[in-house]
Specification:
10 helices, 27% helix, alpha/beta, Rossmann fold, globular, Immunoglobulin-like
Length: 401
């Protein structure tokens, strides 16, 4: 009787998860917005609006990469939109007007507050949503990859009055691409080195006389970046520590964070606030791991532990997991005590279809990689994963595909 009761409860729980996943897939609208204000570069605006908008919603701007489009970026933004569906914030997807899909981060206009170019068009999008959609002007954020990461730096530098924080994946310092051409080979190849003061002046001169609070920044970079040299991360740290008045010595250093070999550093300002976070992705190329959940965490938009891979509790043990979903594979990292760990995958009806072999770790860091092809055979877009530590079940979490 008790066993039947437990099975019934499990089935009801799994059905509930399925219904929740269907809601996420159907929620929200994505459409183009026109006539949003000053737009000298003819940048296009696409807006994602969740079905349930918060009373005073934040704004997240997501800038696409070179040769990409707003639609490409939208299709790759599962986590950004999933959180929007639950939290009720708006997501702006700007579309670059250039023929190669790269953002203007080099012209004098782009690097000047209200000076013109693509950044002014994006700033106008933000102002339009604040004015016409009752958005929270104090909670505007930006993120992007590659060219989108460069635009993230530019927007944080030239429009500190609009943005509260940003997360840049594989970018360069503000002004590093400055020049008459859209591409700056010296910057890309890491041949530009400046003092912290020189880098800082580039930001301050973008908006002369500005004395307000400046946005904090999170920066990710792969050590094997073959397009935008890893050297640029160090230069960007010099720039933003100078601009934000942060100590050049990190307040904390975490090794083997998210994945083995990765390093996270925090930098605090004089008030003790973490204003810079860097994550070095060891051995990663320019096409690095884009951990949207962690970007949302830094930006303060991660209020949903049921969506974000995070902490699970089992008795007195604390299990921390990170899930990275990329093309063709899922990478799961478990951080716990030394010993053994294994994973088991279940469909929503409770069927166990995959057991990942047990691994031993003397450090408590366990890394698993699962082929997306194996999961695609199950004809589902949501799975339940059980983690077993030292022979005992330690917790479960959901994985979308």
């Amino acid at each position: 009787m008790n066993r039947q009761f437990n099975q019934t409860n499990l089935l009801a729980f799994l059905i509930l998860l399925l219904l929740q996943s269907i809601q996420v897939l159907q929620a929200g609208t994505y459409k183009e917005v026109t006539n949003f204000g000053e737009n000298p570069g003819n940048t296009r605006m696409f807006l994602y609006t969740p079905d349930k908008v918060a009373e005073k919603p934040p704004i997240l701007v997501v800038c696409h990469w070179c040769h990409g489009t707003a639609n490409d970026c939208y299709n790759a933004s599962y986590w950004y939109c999933s959180y929007a569906d639950k939290s009720g914030y708006y997501v702006i997807f700007p579309n670059a007007p250039s023929s190669d899909g790269c953002w203007d981060v080099a012209s004098v206009e782009a690097l000047t507050h209200n000076g013109g170019g693509d950044p002014l068009g994006i700033a106008s999008m933000v102002r339009h949503v604040i004015k016409n959609y009752n958005a929270d002007s104090a909670r505007v954020y930006v993120t992007g990859v590659s060219s989108g990461a460069m635009m993230t730096n530019v927007l944080l530098g030239a429009y500190p009055d609009l943005f509260a924080a940003g997360s840049a994946f594989a970018g360069v310092p503000f002004g590093c691409f400055s020049g008459p051409n859209s591409w700056n080979d010296d910057c890309a190849k890491g041949r530009i080195t400046k003092t912290a003061e020189e880098w800082g002046d580039l930001v301050r001169n973008a908006f002369p006389g500005y004395t307000g609070k400046r946005p904090k920044i999170q920066m990710w970079h792969g050590t094997n970046d073959e397009v935008l040299s890893f050297h640029n991360l160090g230069e960007a740290v010099k720039q933003w520590t100078n601009v934000l008045g942060a100590d050049t010595v990190p307040s904390s250093v975490e090794n083997d964070v998210f994945q083995s070999g990765w390093t996270r550093r925090h930098y605090k300002n004089s008030g003790g606030e973490v204003v810079i976070e860097t994550i070095v992705e060891q051995d990663q190329p320019h096409n690095l791991q884009v951990m949207q959940q962690e970007a949302l965490s830094f930006l303060g938009l991660d209020q949903l532990t049921d969506i974000r891979s995070g902490s699970m509790l089992k008795k007195d043990s604390h299990l921390n997991t990170t899930v990275v979903i990329s093309a063709g594979r899922i990478a799961v990292t478990v951080r716990s005590s030394p010993g053994t760990a294994s994973l088991s995958f279940f469909t929503l009806d409770g069927r166990n279809f995959l057991d990942v072999p047990e691994k031993y770790s003397s450090t408590g860091m366990f890394s698993f990689t699962i082929s997306g092809n194996v999961l695609s055979l199950q004809a589902s877009n949501l799975y339940i994963v059980r983690v077993t530590l030292n022979g005992a079940a330690a917790g479960t979490f959901k994985v979308p595909m």
